[in-house]
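A student in our group prepared the protein record below, which I am reviewing. Here is the record exactly as it was handed to me.
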Amino acid sequence: MTERSPAPGGLTLVEALVNTLDMESGADALDTAEGRERFGVTAEETDRARTLRESLRATLLAHAGHPPHREVTPLGALLAEAPLLVTVDAEDGSAALAPADGRSLHARVAAAVAEALVAGTWTRLKACAAADCHWAYYDRSPAGRGRWCSMQVCGARAKMRRYRAKEV
């Protein structure tokens, strides 16, 4: 949906997970074995992954100043269940949070959020303002006020709707 470059660091995981659902067409990559494999999710874990995805989407909408797209489980409640460990590099002493179980999607997302908080990039990951899109994108604009995943598609549609509304 977007021509933007991927989010930095661990946020690529969050961005990719949110973007497994094309809201316009209804296509969900988590419906396929290949789509689930990309995130290390089994068929039995699909509903839990979808719950996490939609909580992330609501949070990314909040980053962009928009209300949630629907009622969701709060992201903090989902990530509270994620086991993380503090790792310390023996050579330089740098510390990081890492998933205690590298397979758990929730723990990998929690580690990515923690990394982004430290890097100051977490609130730059947003969801498109277009109600039929809500695609995740990383806002690289200088002021951090990006609204759409693609100015050429979602932004142009929004501006055209505003223009047509003025004509009436």
About this structure: The longest strand covers residues 84-88. The helical segments are 11-18, 33-37, 46-63, 75-79, 105-119, 151-167.
